[in-house]
């Protein structure tokens, strides 16, 4: 017996895109002026196997993207003086979540 349309529909209902990450926290890495630890929570039913962490300039344009399987990562910024915002999406085989609320990465001097 082959896999029919009803079986495919059932499988697509079992796996849903994850919820948006929340509770995003940004903290400077001690002793490093351009490094930040970014952490977040995920209350998706099965969690997300990977996350996309995006950096945006003040005009809202994405300037850099990182992927991780963890719920935290360290971001090292370049020498630019521009402030950036960070947003995170959870991703699984069903698709990507909505993006978390964006949090500002304020440059330290």
UniProtKB/TrEMBL annotation:
Q: Which domain of life is it from?
A: Eukaryota
Q: What is the name of the protein in this document? A: Fibronectin type-III domain-containing protein
